[in-house]
TrEMBL record:
SMART domains: AAA. CDD domains: ABC_NikE_OppD_transporters. This is Dipeptide ABC transporter ATP-binding protein. GO terms for molecular function: ATP binding; ATP hydrolysis activity. The lineage of its organism: Bacteria, Bacillati, Actinomycetota, Actinomycetes, Sporichthyales. Residues 1-30 are annotated as: Disordered. It comes from Epidermidibacterium keratini.
């Protein structure tokens, strides 16, 4: 990534959001637990066959995930497409009503709250979406977009004109941009507007769902730096969802790795990245372009066999077992719990990974063994 867009602290006149509200910052002290998620389950019934048949199957999109986020902290959430990252983020915000499990925000249980009861809490928990093109109403000016949160939440006695100007400055745009429409901005600028909207009500937690994935690499760094600056200034906590492992590594304090609806490894960023213990984490990291080459300039890569199974009918025991080179009988019958693997990190595996060279060799041998079988099955089926 290269820097391109302007940082937000260009001008000394730029006001902080706290100044704009006239209120002192309301955030919990950094390090205090803000969000606690326990055994969160999100299932979607889906129809089978024709249009009017009854729902007969269930997508197990999120299958019992637990994590917490502290005030001022960034938790990165990574994993392949379809593993349940967005669903987790939305269920945390109660945009999907969880099937079961607990979501506590500042100690208050959110599951089961009515829409009215949730409304004041929504001010503190915001979301930024992946697609900056789809997320801004094309018929609205930026002013309309940024004043909407105040209208929805009935915030009165506020100088919205002043606040919109300050929000735009906070994200590195100009107050005079307020009368333009979304299509007049670049992707990076649109995402800055999305961030400004999320900041409008001075939240404590923002779920950032792939906030830079749709942007050119050249403007990603500007938006990531902006998010970091805002976090420092406003004491925000982030749940940062992304495919891009290098961006997650850059921004996260802790990282959670998901596979087929489960968190398979979670812990401090450097522990997870430098010394992964779950075979899936190791495979994912080894395949990332930024993985460190070894002394010979070669990179050990673990190439997984097979596809991700359907979340409608996930494998028994360990969900990763159909692609894992270390799988044994126990893996099919006993679901591995997340256990302490040292260094503040938890991983869910009966036979944790050792070092990359050993595991890559074992994975390679496993592939050579199962690949002809796979091919034969495909040819005969
Ligand atoms: N409303 C829904 N109804 C049925 N299935 C859904 C629904 N929303 C998500 N799913 C399914 O749940 C699973 C998890 O989806 P989700 O969007 O959370 O994954 P993701 O990790 O965010 O993927 P991506 O990286 O592609 O954004 C997928 O199999 C998806 O098809
Ligand atoms: S529990 Fe078994 S199948 Fe699952 S990741 Fe560990 S070794 Fe592989
Ligand atoms: Mg997603």
């Amino acid at each position: 990534m290269t820097e391109s867009t302007s940082p937000k602290h260009d001008s000394p006149e730029q006001a902080t959001l706290a100044e704009s509200t006239g209120a002192p910052p309301k955030h919990a002290a950094s390090g205090e637990s803000l969000l606690q998620v326990e055994d969160l389950v999100m299932e979607f019934p889906v129809g089978k066959g024709g249009l009017f048949r009854r729902a007969q199957e269930t997508v197990h999109a999120v299958a019992g995930v637990s994590f917490d986020i502290k005030a001022g902290e960034t938790l990165g959430l990574v994993g392949e497409s379809g593993c349940g990252k967005t669903t987790t983020g939305r269920a945390v915000l109660q945009l999907h009503r969880p099937t079961s499990g607990s979501v506590k925000f500042e100690g208050r249980e959110l599951t089961g709250l009515s829409a009215n009861e949730m409304r004041p809490i929504r001010r503190d928990m915001q979301i930024v979406f992946q697609d900056p093109y789809a997320s801004l109403n094309p018929r609205w000016t930026i002013n309309d977009i940024l004043t909407e949160p105040f209208e929805i939440h009935g915030v009165k006695n506020i100088d919205t004109r002043k606040r919109v100007g300050e929000l735009l400055e906070l994200v590195g745009l100009k107050p005079e941009h307020r009368n333009r429409y979304g299509h007049e901005f670049s992707g990076g600028q649109r995402q800055r507007i999305g961030v400004a909207r999320a900041l409008a009500l001075n939240p404590k937690l923002i779920v950032l769902d792939e906030p830079v994935s749709a942007l050119d690499v050249s403007v990603q760094a500007g938006v990531v730096n902006l998010l970091e600056d805002l976090q420092e200034e406003l004491g925000l906590a982030y749940c940062f969802i992304a495919h891009d492992l290098s961006v997650v590594r850059h921004i996260s304090d802790r990282v959670a790795v998901m596979y087929l609806g489960k968190i398979v490894e979670i812990g401090p960023r450097d522990e997870v990245y430098n010394n992964p213990r779950h075979p899936y984490t190791m495979a994912l990291l080894s395949a990332a372009p930024e993985a460190d080459p070894n002394e010979d300039g070669m990179r050990e890569r673990i190439i997984l066999t097979g596809d991700v199974p359907s979340p409608i009918n996930p494998p028994s025991g360990c969900r990763f077992r159909t692609r894992c080179w270390k799988a044994q009988e126990k893996c099919a019958v006993e679901e591995p719990p997340l256990v302490d693997m040292g260094g503040g990190r938890l991983a869910a595996c009966h036979f944790p990974a050792t070092d990359l060279a050993t595991e890559a060799a074992a994975a390679h041998a496993h592939r050579d063994k199962v690949q002809p079988d796979l091919l034969a099955t495909q040819l005969t089926s």
